[in-house]
Protein backbone atom coordinates (compact mmCIF):
# COMPACT_ATOMS: atom_id res chain seq x y z
CA UNK A 1 0.00 0.00 0.00
CA UNK A 2 1.13 3.50 -0.73
CA UNK A 3 2.26 5.64 2.18
CA UNK A 4 3.44 9.22 2.56
CA UNK A 5 5.82 10.26 5.35
CA UNK A 6 6.59 13.73 6.57
CA UNK A 7 9.25 13.30 9.22
CA UNK A 8 9.33 16.93 10.39
CA UNK A 9 6.30 17.74 12.57
CA UNK A 10 7.49 21.34 12.93
CA UNK A 11 9.91 23.64 11.17
CA UNK A 12 10.79 27.28 11.59
CA UNK A 13 12.42 29.84 9.36
CA UNK A 14 13.34 33.50 9.52
CA UNK A 15 11.60 35.85 7.18
CA UNK A 16 13.42 36.15 3.81
CA UNK A 17 15.34 32.92 4.42
CA UNK A 18 14.90 29.57 2.67
CA UNK A 19 13.41 26.44 4.19
CA UNK A 20 12.99 22.91 2.90
CA UNK A 21 10.20 20.56 3.98
CA UNK A 22 10.77 16.84 3.52
CA UNK A 23 8.44 14.22 2.13
CA UNK A 24 9.05 10.61 1.25
CA UNK A 25 6.58 8.12 -0.12
CA UNK A 26 6.34 4.46 -0.87
CA UNK A 27 4.79 3.05 -4.00
CA UNK A 28 5.37 0.31 -6.54
CA UNK A 29 3.73 2.35 -9.28
CA UNK A 30 5.65 4.29 -11.93
CA UNK A 31 3.01 6.82 -12.94
CA UNK A 32 1.50 9.05 -10.27
CA UNK A 33 1.13 12.62 -9.12
CA UNK A 34 2.58 14.38 -6.10
CA UNK A 35 1.26 17.50 -4.45
CA UNK A 36 2.02 19.97 -1.72
CA UNK A 37 -0.97 21.59 -0.06
CA UNK A 38 -0.87 24.49 2.38
CA UNK A 39 -3.34 24.81 5.25
CA UNK A 40 -3.26 28.26 6.91
CA UNK A 41 -5.10 28.98 10.16
CA UNK A 42 -8.30 29.44 8.15
CA UNK A 43 -8.16 25.63 7.58
CA UNK A 44 -8.63 25.99 3.84
CA UNK A 45 -6.59 23.48 1.81
CA UNK A 46 -4.67 25.40 -0.84
CA UNK A 47 -2.68 23.80 -3.63
CA UNK A 48 0.94 24.98 -3.58
CA UNK A 49 2.64 22.91 -6.26
CA UNK A 50 2.23 19.65 -8.18
CA UNK A 51 4.45 17.22 -10.02
CA UNK A 52 3.94 14.34 -12.43
CA UNK A 53 6.13 11.36 -11.70
CA UNK A 54 7.19 10.80 -15.30
CA UNK A 55 8.50 14.36 -15.62
CA UNK A 56 12.09 14.62 -14.45
CA UNK A 57 12.06 18.41 -14.37
CA UNK A 58 11.29 19.77 -10.94
CA UNK A 59 8.15 21.89 -10.68
CA UNK A 60 8.39 25.53 -9.64
CA UNK A 61 5.75 28.09 -8.71
CA UNK A 62 7.22 31.49 -7.92
CA UNK A 63 9.01 31.14 -4.55
CA UNK A 64 8.06 27.46 -4.24
CA UNK A 65 9.99 24.66 -5.86
CA UNK A 66 10.36 20.94 -5.38
CA UNK A 67 13.23 18.53 -5.43
CA UNK A 68 11.74 15.36 -6.90
CA UNK A 69 13.95 12.28 -6.63
CA UNK A 70 11.92 9.44 -8.13
CA UNK A 71 14.38 6.66 -7.41
CA UNK A 72 14.67 7.75 -3.80
CA UNK A 73 10.90 8.38 -3.60
CA UNK A 74 11.50 11.82 -2.20
CA UNK A 75 9.52 15.01 -2.87
CA UNK A 76 10.78 17.94 -0.81
CA UNK A 77 9.37 21.47 -0.93
CA UNK A 78 11.68 24.48 -0.92
CA UNK A 79 10.29 27.87 0.03
CA UNK A 80 12.57 30.74 -0.89
CA UNK A 81 12.40 34.28 0.51
CA UNK A 82 9.99 33.11 3.23
CA UNK A 83 7.18 35.47 4.14
CA UNK A 84 5.03 35.71 7.26
CA UNK A 85 2.08 34.55 5.17
CA UNK A 86 3.83 31.26 4.49
CA UNK A 87 3.21 30.17 8.08
CA UNK A 88 0.87 27.19 7.87
CA UNK A 89 0.60 23.43 7.94
CA UNK A 90 2.01 21.86 4.79
CA UNK A 91 0.81 18.49 3.57
CA UNK A 92 2.50 16.30 1.03
CA UNK A 93 0.13 14.06 -0.94
CA UNK A 94 0.33 11.22 -3.46
CA UNK A 95 -2.27 10.30 -6.04
CA UNK A 96 -2.42 7.65 -8.65
CA UNK A 97 -5.09 8.18 -11.28
CA UNK A 98 -8.57 7.09 -10.09
CA UNK A 99 -7.13 5.99 -6.74
CA UNK A 100 -7.31 7.86 -3.45
CA UNK A 101 -5.30 10.90 -2.48
CA UNK A 102 -2.93 9.86 0.31
CA UNK A 103 -1.65 12.53 2.67
CA UNK A 104 1.29 12.75 5.00
CA UNK A 105 0.73 13.87 8.58
CA UNK A 106 1.85 17.42 7.87
CA UNK A 107 4.63 19.83 8.82
CA UNK A 108 3.82 22.99 10.75
CA UNK A 109 5.92 25.87 9.46
CA UNK A 110 6.54 28.91 11.62
CA UNK A 111 7.99 32.06 10.11
CA UNK A 112 9.75 34.53 12.40
CA UNK A 113 10.24 38.21 11.55
CA UNK B 1 -16.42 31.31 -9.77
CA UNK B 2 -15.25 27.70 -9.74
CA UNK B 3 -15.63 26.32 -6.25
CA UNK B 4 -16.48 23.49 -3.91
CA UNK B 5 -18.99 24.45 -1.24
CA UNK B 6 -19.82 22.68 1.98
CA UNK B 7 -22.64 23.22 4.45
CA UNK B 8 -22.75 23.69 7.30
CA UNK B 9 -19.33 25.07 8.11
CA UNK B 10 -19.74 24.38 11.81
CA UNK B 11 -22.01 21.90 13.51
CA UNK B 12 -22.42 20.78 17.12
CA UNK B 13 -24.71 17.83 17.63
CA UNK B 14 -25.41 15.02 20.06
CA UNK B 15 -24.72 11.33 19.85
CA UNK B 16 -27.18 9.45 17.68
CA UNK B 17 -28.81 12.39 15.94
CA UNK B 18 -28.63 11.84 12.18
CA UNK B 19 -26.96 14.58 10.19
CA UNK B 20 -25.97 15.36 6.63
CA UNK B 21 -23.10 17.53 5.44
CA UNK B 22 -23.64 18.74 1.91
CA UNK B 23 -20.98 19.17 -0.75
CA UNK B 24 -21.49 20.78 -4.12
CA UNK B 25 -19.14 21.66 -6.98
CA UNK B 26 -19.80 23.76 -10.06
CA UNK B 27 -16.91 22.54 -12.22
CA UNK B 28 -18.55 19.43 -13.75
CA UNK B 29 -15.97 17.23 -12.01
CA UNK B 30 -16.39 13.47 -12.21
CA UNK B 31 -14.40 12.70 -9.06
CA UNK B 32 -15.56 13.73 -5.60
CA UNK B 33 -14.27 12.67 -2.23
CA UNK B 34 -14.69 13.15 1.50
CA UNK B 35 -11.80 13.38 3.97
CA UNK B 36 -11.55 13.82 7.69
CA UNK B 37 -8.66 15.60 9.35
CA UNK B 38 -7.55 14.74 12.86
CA UNK B 39 -4.50 16.05 14.74
CA UNK B 40 -1.38 14.02 14.03
CA UNK B 41 -3.11 11.90 11.41
CA UNK B 42 -3.29 14.21 8.42
CA UNK B 43 -6.27 13.80 6.10
CA UNK B 44 -7.81 10.40 5.61
CA UNK B 45 -10.24 9.49 2.89
CA UNK B 46 -13.73 8.40 3.95
CA UNK B 47 -15.51 7.76 0.65
CA UNK B 48 -15.02 8.73 -2.95
CA UNK B 49 -17.04 8.73 -6.15
CA UNK B 50 -15.83 8.55 -9.72
CA UNK B 51 -19.18 9.45 -11.25
CA UNK B 52 -22.91 9.50 -10.70
CA UNK B 53 -24.13 6.40 -8.85
CA UNK B 54 -20.53 5.17 -8.42
CA UNK B 55 -19.15 5.33 -4.88
CA UNK B 56 -16.43 3.44 -3.05
CA UNK B 57 -14.95 3.21 0.41
CA UNK B 58 -11.79 4.99 1.39
CA UNK B 59 -9.64 4.28 4.42
CA UNK B 60 -12.12 5.14 7.19
CA UNK B 61 -15.70 4.53 5.95
CA UNK B 62 -17.20 3.09 9.14
CA UNK B 63 -20.09 5.15 10.45
CA UNK B 64 -20.55 7.14 7.23
CA UNK B 65 -22.71 6.94 4.15
CA UNK B 66 -22.61 8.84 0.89
CA UNK B 67 -24.67 9.14 -2.24
CA UNK B 68 -24.03 10.54 -5.73
CA UNK B 69 -27.36 11.04 -7.42
CA UNK B 70 -26.24 14.12 -9.31
CA UNK B 71 -22.82 14.95 -10.66
CA UNK B 72 -22.48 18.17 -8.70
CA UNK B 73 -23.53 16.91 -5.24
CA UNK B 74 -21.92 14.43 -2.88
CA UNK B 75 -23.50 14.53 0.60
CA UNK B 76 -21.92 12.86 3.62
CA UNK B 77 -24.40 11.22 5.95
CA UNK B 78 -23.81 10.25 9.56
CA UNK B 79 -26.78 8.05 10.51
CA UNK B 80 -25.85 7.79 14.20
CA UNK B 81 -22.97 10.11 15.01
CA UNK B 82 -20.62 9.27 17.86
CA UNK B 83 -18.01 11.40 19.66
CA UNK B 84 -15.16 9.73 17.75
CA UNK B 85 -16.54 11.33 14.61
CA UNK B 86 -15.72 14.76 15.97
CA UNK B 87 -13.38 16.07 13.30
CA UNK B 88 -12.77 18.53 10.50
CA UNK B 89 -14.30 17.28 7.26
CA UNK B 90 -13.30 18.23 3.74
CA UNK B 91 -14.97 17.58 0.44
CA UNK B 92 -12.84 17.68 -2.71
CA UNK B 93 -13.38 17.25 -6.43
CA UNK B 94 -11.50 16.93 -9.70
CA UNK B 95 -11.73 15.70 -13.25
CA UNK B 96 -10.56 12.22 -14.18
CA UNK B 97 -8.86 13.30 -17.37
CA UNK B 98 -5.54 11.55 -16.97
CA UNK B 99 -3.55 14.77 -16.82
CA UNK B 100 -2.08 16.50 -13.79
CA UNK B 101 -3.72 19.89 -14.22
CA UNK B 102 -7.27 18.64 -14.66
CA UNK B 103 -6.93 15.85 -12.11
CA UNK B 104 -5.76 18.11 -9.28
CA UNK B 105 -8.22 17.97 -6.42
CA UNK B 106 -9.73 21.19 -5.13
CA UNK B 107 -11.08 21.36 -1.63
CA UNK B 108 -14.11 22.87 0.00
CA UNK B 109 -13.70 25.16 3.02
CA UNK B 110 -14.18 22.39 5.57
CA UNK B 111 -16.88 21.52 8.10
CA UNK B 112 -16.00 21.46 11.79
CA UNK B 113 -18.19 18.79 13.43
CA UNK B 114 -18.46 18.26 17.16
CA UNK B 115 -20.44 15.29 18.48
CA UNK B 116 -21.24 15.50 22.19
Molecular structure report:
The complex is a heterodimer of chains A (113) and B (116). By secondary structure, chain A is mainly β. Chain A has no helices and twelve strands. In chain A, strands 2, 5, 6, 10, 11 and 12 form a six-stranded mixed beta sheet that branches. A four-stranded antiparallel beta sheet of chain A has the order 3-9-8-7, with no helix packed on it. The radius of gyration of chain A is 13 Å and the shape is globular. The model of chain A has no long low-confidence stretch (mean pLDDT 94). By secondary structure, chain B is mainly beta. In chain B, 3% of the residues lie in helices and 49% in strands. In chain B, strands 2, 4, 5, 6, 9, 10 and 11 form a seven-stranded mixed beta sheet that branches. Chain B has a four-stranded antiparallel beta sheet with strand order 1-3-8-7, with no helix packed on it. In chain B, strand 4 and strand 5 form a beta hairpin. Chain B is globular. Chain B starts with a strand and ends with a strand. In chain B, 35% of the residues are buried. The model of chain B has no long low-confidence stretch (mean pLDDT 94). Chain A binds chain B through residues 4, 33, 35, 37, 43-45, 47, 50-52, 91, 93, 95, 97-98, 100-106, and chain B through 31, 33, 35, 40-45, 48, 50, 58-59, 88, 90, 92, 96, 98, 100, 103-107, 109-110, 112.
Short recap of the structure:
Chain A has no helices and twelve strands.
Radius of gyration of chain B: 14 Å
- Poorly predicted runs of chain B: none
Straight-line N-to-C gap of chain B: 36 Å
**How large is the count of helical segments of chain A?**
0
Largest sheet of chain A: 6 strands, mixed
The largest chain-to-chain contact, stated as pair and per-chain residue counts, equals: A-B, 23 and 27 residues
Helix content of chain A: under 10%
Q: What is the overall shape of chain B?
A: globular
Fraction of residues of chain B in helices? under 10%
Indicate the radius of gyration of chain A in whole angstroms: 13 Å
What's the average pLDDT of chain B? 94
Share in β-strands of chain A? over 45%
Q: What string gives the helices and strands of chain A in order?
A: EEEEEEEEEEEE
Total count of strands of chain B: 11
Distance between the termini of chain A: 41 Å
Number of β-strand runs of chain A: 12
> Which structural class matches the secondary elements of chain A?
mainly beta
Count every helix of chain B, treating DSSP H or I runs of 4 or more residues as helices: 1
Structural class by helix and strand composition of chain B: mainly beta
Largest sheet of chain B: 7 strands, mixed
Oligomer: heterodimer
Amino acid sequence: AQTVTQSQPEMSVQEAETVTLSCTYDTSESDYYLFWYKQPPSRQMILVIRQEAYKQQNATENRFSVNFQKAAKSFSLKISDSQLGDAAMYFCAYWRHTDKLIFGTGTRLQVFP
Amino acid sequence: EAQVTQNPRYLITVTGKKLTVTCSQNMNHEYMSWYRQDPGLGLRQIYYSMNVEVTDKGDVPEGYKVSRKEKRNFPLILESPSPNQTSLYFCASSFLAGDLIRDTQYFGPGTRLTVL
